[in-house]
Amino acid sequence: MTDGTGRPLAFVLSPGNVADITVAPDLLRLAPPSRIFLGDQGYDARFLRELAASRGARVVIPNHPTRRNPHPFDPEAYKARNAIEPMFCRIKDFRRIATRYDRLARNFASAVALVAAITWWT
């Protein structure tokens, strides 16, 4: 799968009762190397920061309020994350995705890929 410009994309379908940060390392390994790694406070973990940095990415994640030793944070670079959030909102406009009617993970993943292609096209 590519983003339309020829750059490859990756996604991992995780169970609904699993935190995203538990599958983030798998997704990071599947994705091509990038210059910047953007994430919200939920991704503020040492192991994930180190993995992204080892792949050559500059890590831009706001510090979790409970973090004792804060990392440097670039709020200007974090604004680029705004391009991602509306995409998830648009995908959830499709009832089949928002309510997850599919019983099989492969069917749900296919529906997400189809809806992503439709939203990119329109």
TrEMBL record:
The record ties this protein, via Pfam families, to: DDE_Tnp_1
Q: Which residues cross the membrane?
A: 104-121
Tell me a GO biological process for this protein. Answer: DNA transposition
- Pinpoint the Transposase IS4-like domain residues: 3-119
Tree of life domain:
Bacteria
Q: Keywords of this protein's UniProt record, alphabetized?
A: Membrane, Transmembrane, Transmembrane helix
Gene Ontology molecular function terms on file? DNA binding; transposase activity
NCBIfam families recorded: transpos_IS5_3 (NF033580)
Protein name per its UniProtKB record: Transposase
